[in-house]
Specification:
Layout: E1 4-8, H1 12-22, E2 27-31, H2 34-44, E3 48-52, H3 60-69, E4 78-82, H4 87-96, E5 100-103, H5 109-119
Parallel strand pairs: 1-2, 1-3, 3-4, 4-5
Helix pairs in contact: 1-5
Length: 120
Amino acid sequence: MAKKILIIEDEKALIRNLELALRDEYEVLSAVSAEEGLSKIKKNKPDLILLDVILPDKDGIEVLQKLKSGKDTRDIPVIVLTNLSDSVTVSKILAAGGKEYLVKSDWGISEIVKKIETII
C-alpha cells in the first residue's frame, strides 16, 4: 500500500508539480488552506505532510504546533516549505517540531522528492 503524503499549500502550480512528481510512488492528497488540511489529516492519516507557512486562513506554524500537540498526529513528519528564510521563522518552525525546513526558491521539485524519500 502506497504511503500517503498531504500537501498543505495555497500555490496551486506548486501542488500540481509536486503531485506529478510524487504520484507514481505515493498517494498524494492536497489542501489549499489550513482548515482543509487539518480535516484531511484527521480523515486520511498521512505518512508525511508538506506544509506551507503562509496560508490564507491560518499560519502554518500554528498548524504545525497543533499537529505536534495531538496524540494521533505528533509523530507525522512535517516538511515545511516556505519562502520565508529569516532566522526567527526558522527557529519557530524547528521549535514547533518541523522535521525539515525548505525554502521554496532554493529547492527544485526533484530535490524535494529526494528529501521526502529520505524521511518516509
